[in-house]
Specification:
This protein is an alpha/beta fold and about 200 residues long. Helix content is about 35%, strand content about 15%.
């Protein structure tokens, strides 16, 4: 591919390579590649990313040019190189899994993702793909929708200068009570919903 082709960064926020999260991420990556993107897949667990905070990566609000750890600068370089960012992750306790939350906390840091008159993230687009264990008609699914629209789409994406951000939830990711053909149909529908969200980026 030529360097003029756009880049998509697909971030996998699950510790198992055989998870549904990983399968959805792989499918999204292939779809983006078929749509003309150069795809960079960042599997946080496979990369050995440490989500724990540390003193080296604490923001210094008096110095937006602070040099953070090499790990952080390596990761933010991949973020900056992307035109589209697609985190794929399970929803745990109506929030991000620690692996992905720590990546945002450490890598999307002051001076790197926000805190400048012109955002380093300006012009990017973003799609959050969340896998939720509860059913869409569960009364608590409203908490998932609020989480995707508030903390993620507004609190992270828009705050960091990416107003063109969307989020999609794939509900009942564990297919509770389903078996055989019914279970297979359910997962086909989840994949189709994810495909539709990715297609909106193309």
């Amino acid at each position: 591919m030529s360097e003029t082709e756009p880049t998509a960064l697909v971030v996998v926020g699950h510790h198992r390579s055989d998870s549904l999260t990983a399968a959805v991420a792989e499918r999204a990556a292939k779809r983006l590649a078929a749509g003309g993107y150069r795809v960079d897949v960042l599997d946080l667990h496979e990369a050995g990313f440490d989500p724990r905070g540390n003193t080296a990566d604490e923001p210094d609000y008096g110095n937006r040019d602070k040099r953070y750890s090499e790990e952080v600068h390596e990761h933010i370089a991949r973020v900056h190189a992307a035109d589209v960012i697609v985190p794929v992750f399970p929803v745990w306790w109506y929030g991000l899994p620690a692996l992905l939350k720590g990546w945002i906390d450490r890598v999307w840091n002051y001076g790197l993702a926000y805190g400048r008159s012109r955002s380093p993230m300006a012009g990017k687009r973003m799609l959050w793909i969340a896998l939720a264990g509860l059913a869409e008609d569960d009364p608590n699914s409203a908490l998932t929708r609020a989480f995707l629209d508030g903390p993620l789409r507004v609190g992270i994406s828009a705050y960091c200068g990416i107003p063109d951000a969307a989020a999609v939830a794939l509900y009942d990711s564990e297919a509770q009570g389903l078996a055989g053909a019914e279970r297979d149909r359910h997962y086909r529908e989840l994949f189709a919903k994810a495909d539709e969200a990715v297609d909106a980026l193309l």
